[in-house]
Amino acid sequence: MTTQHPGTRQTARQRLQEAHRREQRAAVVRRRTTVGVSIVAALAVVGGVVAAIATASDGSSPAANAPVVTPAHASGGDGTTVVYGKADAPHTLQVYEDFRCPICHEFETSAGQAVQQLADDGTYKIEYHLASFLDGNLGGKGSRTALAAAGAALDQGVDQFKKFHDVLYANQPAETTDGFGDVNHLLDLAGKVPGLKTAAFTKAVTEGTYQPWAAKVSKAFDASGVSGTPTVMLDGKALKVFDSAGKPLTGEQYTALIRSTIGG
Fold first, then answer.
1. Residue 191 in contact with residue 153, Cβ under 8 Å?
2. Is the separation of the CB atoms in 229 and 104 below 8 Å?
3. Whole-prediction pTM
4. Are 199 and 154 contacting, i.e. CB atoms less than 8 angstroms apart?
5. Which one, of 83, 225, 58, 54, lies nearest residue 148 by Cα?
6. What digits encode the pLDDT tens for the residues 204-225?
7. Which listed site, 104, 178, 231, 261, has its alpha carbon 20 to 30 Å from 13?
8. CATH architecture, range 6-262
9. Crossing angle (nearest 10°) for helices 183-190 and 158-170
10. Phi and psi, residue 26, nearest 5°
11. Strands (DSSP E) along 107-171, which ranges?
């Protein structure tokens, strides 16, 4: 895992918090009055982990405007979600995130293993909803390029997607560098996942085969009503995965939260 300089991490947090303040001012005029959105917004404010959603510029690249190729193993009626875990699990954990989001990185680093373990043992299945709004907020194309590469991994299997997902967060660059915008760097990271970097995967990442799908996935996120990343819900109920000081829950704390929420 690469480690970001503390000063860089602070800059990322400050930028996201400033983006949230701008979003709050705009929301006075246009905020939706649905209960679900209100819950998520309240959670994000308390935890200090909100990131304002800008209109994604997924159509800016030629590949994004090509016909949509949906990866094998994509889920949902429109193929915009990724489901990891046992299909018959009694609960569903919904995770909303952006591969460039440094706050998502904090949560993945702190509790990511526990999140996966509870899926592996059948407590719940994980439903990933992925975004690329940080490209608009911070500039660059790393979110959508990484998302498209994750689509190529998903085409090989959900397990390969999950492993690549974890590698991306473990090697997340500083947001100022837009490191995920470089497909060669993404291919290098793919080499950390045994068996992933096949000729088909390399071709799909290099040619942007899943860029249109990434744009579709991002639009689905934008239409979800979720106001920031990371947002985590269990069976539709928002979970507080950051404490009042803005620190992510540890694996043990997260597991205890899940157990208490489901009453097990």
1. no
2. yes
3. 0.79
4. no
5. 58
6. 999 999 999 999 999 999 999 9
7. 261
8. 3-Layer(aba) Sandwich (3.40)
9. 110
10. -70, -30
11. 125-131
